[in-house]
Amino acid sequence: MAKSALSGSHPLDTMLAVSDVIQNERLARLYARVLELDTPTVEELASRSSSSQTTVYEDVKHLVEIGVLKRVTDSQPHRYSARRVDMTIQTGEETFQITPTLLVALAQRDSNDNIELYLERHEVSGLATAIEYARAYTKSEMTARIMAREQEIPVLEAETILQELQEILLDAENEISTELDIETLDADVDERIGE
């Protein structure tokens, strides 16, 4: 049996567990459904899935073993909750944050053409970067024009992905506020233009 990867284990174990979810769309969709439903049973998850109940059971078992999900009840039917993934990965000068938002966005690639197209063009690392911009955009600290310039992409592409990711952020990250602070936004824009 695999050691729990998110409950106090080595950061590399955590990275490998999360990598497993990032690379497997079915596992990402399952994680996103558990996050959405809060504490579902395998039966509840299977009823919303195109996979068989046996496959969902095996996937839940795997996600529990690697520590991405946890069983929250001792009695049958067992209920499961998603562990909050929060990792920062630094490669050279770039830093990427892995949060539930990234996993949910990856889970939506089949049903969201804009996310799928962005992933085709910029891969998972580009989507992780776009989520950082979307987090600032949602807090009114970023504009699509700034993201487009900094990432060297068309403004329409930046605006489209920011709006898609903003919806996911508001659902996946409860601490995100959408209060508009014009003075802070203006100061940030002026600072970035001066760079």
Automatic annotation (TrEMBL):
SUPFAM superfamilies: Winged helix' DNA-binding domain. Residues 155-182 form a coiled coil. It comes from the Archaea. Gene3D superfamilies: Winged helix-like DNA-binding domain superfamily/Winged helix DNA-binding domain. Transmembrane segments: none annotated. Keywords: Coiled coil. Residues 28-82 form the Transcription regulator TrmB N-terminal domain. InterPro entries: DUF7437, Tscrpt_reg_TrmB_N, WH-like_DNA-bd_sf, WH_DNA-bd_sf. Residues 109-173 form the DUF7437 domain. This is TrmB family transcription regulator. It comes from Natronomonas moolapensis (strain DSM 18674 / CECT 7526 / JCM 14361 / 8.8.11).
